[in-house]
Input
Amino acid sequence: MWVPWAGSADGNAHVIDLRPGRECGRLGWAGHSGGDSSDAWSGLAAYLHEISRALYDGGGVSEMYPYLTWDGQLWWELGENCQFLNGDPLIPAPMGLG
Output
């Protein structure tokens, strides 16, 4: 009863847990060997708030940091000091409203 709504480059799925009980609505990860929502957000709104905060104020979300690729695509990478993706430069994502 997990609804996948996003994925990672390593094949894991970001899921919304719809199992009955206290955890219903929590976000978590599901991979080939099972899933986990123990270190997740209480819901999609809380997660999107964290994303917008990271893009506006700077910083990361669960150790993932936003960057722009050479062609202007948004890319999230583990760590705040990444400089390259497949040999192409990464630029820390813009912050604030300009």
